[in-house]
Every structure is written in C-alpha cells, then in structure tokens.
Amino acid sequence: MTDPKLDLTIDRPAESVPEMVVRRIRDAIAAGLLPPGRQLTERELVELTGVSRTSVREAMRHLQTLGLVEPSPSRGVRVARLGSDEVREIYEVRDALEPAVAELFVLRATDEEVAALVEKVQPRESGDKRLQAIYEFDELLLAGARNSLLKSMLEPLHTRIHALRSLSVTIPGRHEASAREYLEIAEAIAARSPERAAEAAHRHVRAAAKAALEAVEILEKKHPNS
Questions:
Q1: Nearest alpha carbon to residue 205 among 88, 126, 119, 105
Q2: Domain check: are 218 and 128 in the same one?
Q3: pLDDT on residue 32
C-alpha cells in the first residue's frame, strides 16, 4: 500500500521548452517584430531564447508545419512570405468556418462566456494589448462553440491569420475598422442572435481578407523575386 505521506509527484510545466519557443516566435511574427522574409538562423535563435539547439530545431520543425517559417534560399529558415494565392485560400476557408463558430457560440455559450467575450472587444486597449485581446477573443469563441472538429481546423489557421495582421493593419483605416467589426460580432452574440452573429463574422472576414490581400500584393511588388 502506498504511503500517503510519500509524495514524489513532479509538477510538469504547462508547455515544453520547444512549445514555449514556438509560442514566443509565433507572437513575435504576429506582432511584426519578425517580418516576412526575416532570416532565422539556429545560432541567433539559441542566443535570443537561451535554450538548446535541440529545442530550437524542434520548434522550427513545428513552425514549418504551421506555415509560419519556410526554408530560406540561403541557409536555414526565414519567416514565411505568403503569396496572394495562399492568403486568398486561407480567408476562403476562414469565411466558410468562422461564421459557423459564431453561430454555435450563441447557441451553446454560457452567460459568463458571453460576458467574457464582450469584455475583450471594449475599446480600451491599443497596440500589443489590442492584439492580445483579439487572440483571446478568438480562443474564447472557439471554446464556447464546443465543436472539437471546428476547433482543430481553425486553430492552425488562426496562427497564420494572426501573423498576417501585422501586415493588414498597415492599410489605412484597417485597424479602426477591425475594432468596429469585432464589436459588431460581440453585440450580435450578446443579443443571442445566431443569424446576426454569423453575418457579422462574414462581414469581418471579407473585410479582413481584402486588407490582407492588399497588404500582401504591396509586399510582392516590393520583393517580386523573393
């Protein structure tokens, strides 16, 4: 019989070291600190993160599966440069799925989850805090929809969409328009209207797609042979 006083349990961190590296690099890409095309060498990443080469290599493999980094024409990898065709496909899939998530959230979320979602879009934050609030909004929306298949399909897509935001907000007026669109989605959800929530999500995704494509096309003109 096990002695109840003998507790050898080891508390395990919520994330492994490679997962933490993935999250840090993903957040830096989304914030525009690591712009598209930025070279990422193993040596630099070891110095920046303070972790082993093995952890960096594992993190790079995962970031490649997420589509956030790609092999560089020179040595190592670079932050992925999404072409307009890829961006169009990403937003087509998002437009097909995200309105369904908004509708399911209305039907399945608790009052507490609705209140938490609405809180995320209040016009108080700016800059990095505003971006973080959007990430958390997306996470809350997926969690409250209670559909594991939709969640597994959209989470990797959201990672790439967040990376595109640093580009799309360079389009004049896009930052303010995006804030209004998120507020419209939250208001429709608070009113418990699945139809309004789905339509507001459609409008937001279409407007976001237009801005992202415009930003990527500008980048392609600046770097036509990259």
A1: 88
A2: yes
A3: 76
CA dist 42 to 25, 60, 77, 185, Å?
13, 9, 9, 41
Residue 5 lies in a domain: no
* Same domain assignment for residues 69 and 152: no
- Global pTM? 0.80
Maximum mean pLDDT: which of 50-54, 163-167, 178-182, 201-205: 201-205
Q: Strand 39-40 to strand 77-79: parallel, antiparallel, or no bridges (unpaired)? A: antiparallel
CATH number, residue 206 = 1.20.120.530
10, pLDDT greater than 70: no
Strands 69-71 and 77-79: antiparallel
> Of the candidates 56, 79, 102, which is a domain's last residue?
79
Total number of domains constituting the chain: 2
pLDDT of residue 125: 61
Judge whether 213 lies within some domain.
yes
Return d(Cα 97, Cα 87) in angstroms, integer.
Answer: 16
